[in-house]
Amino acid sequence: MRDASSSTAVSVPRAAPSRAPHADAALIELASGDTRLTVAPHIGGSIASYYDVSTAGPLHWFRPATQSALNAGDPLQMGSFPLFPYCNRIRDARFEFEGRTVDLAGDGNRFPHALHGHAWRRAWRVGTRTPSALELHFEHVPDVRRRGDWPFRYDAQQRIELIGGALHLTLSAHNRSDRPMPFGMGHHPYYPRTPNTQVHAQVQAMWHADRDVLPTHLGPHPAVDALRHGMSADAFDLDNNFAGWAHEAIVTWTDERRRLTLTAEAPFDHLVVFAPANEDLLCVEPVTNTTDSFNAGETPEHAGGQVLMPGEAITARIVWTPQRF
User: Fold this and answer.
1) Which residues contact 15 (CB under 8 A, 6 or more apart)?
2) What CATH number does the domain located at 28-324 have?
3) CDD domains from the xrefs (predicted)?
4) Among 18, 28, 63, 173, which is least packed, fewest CB within 10 Å?
């Protein structure tokens, strides 16, 4: 995801576990025991930080947003941000659907290939709120005057909740159009990356990609076996989708004797691992569709994604569970 997630490499300083969270009046803090979560509804409905309070300072499970990132309102430098109504790239920002060309170029996305949908670049509305839970709402109504606007009307929601130390995130969407809508969703977490960070995940194959990080073919790769046994974040130069994911991935900081287990419900059937060489970035990302899935052609069953019929809704949950050992 060469954009600090994808497209162009952006170097982000490593998030040290002792870094203090930043004060920002627009942030909403959730708490459960010693665990804290800060949410930035105005910055793409993003999670700014997820950490445990300790006598040594905050122990971060996601890479925390810096004050400069908050000041800039940059979702790509948050702890995690939502992906609606598709995940990752669409080649040349266009695809064919039901005999029509959907052209997304010019919608404000600064990347040459449409990236991560649009909900991450817009403010979300705050809904029901408790000390440990929060609902965020997003509504998209197409604007025919806006070049490249997503031509389907839909609503999306995030329910963000701390239960003990675990982060429960329920994503949902509802097609409000009078016609079918191609669709995908996910969340894009960044994790602290140290020389001793490992990633475990049961996957079956990797999507190989071209220089634009667009998929070329699905096949074997040494990273597949490495992930099954515990792959060092420094082992490969990765920005790839993995198929046949068993819906669980574990990020372990072996030197710090702690781990974070990610589990996801179907249709989060695909996993993205972004671990670029010579950078401190690490993403292990649950998604419902692979990169450029809308242009998958003859193999849509391998690329994921859904078509939501008029009035149809979809809901699925992602959970991150921390543990020290």
Assistant:
1) 60, 63, 64, 192
2) 2.70.98.10
3) Aldose_epim_Ec_YphB
4) 18
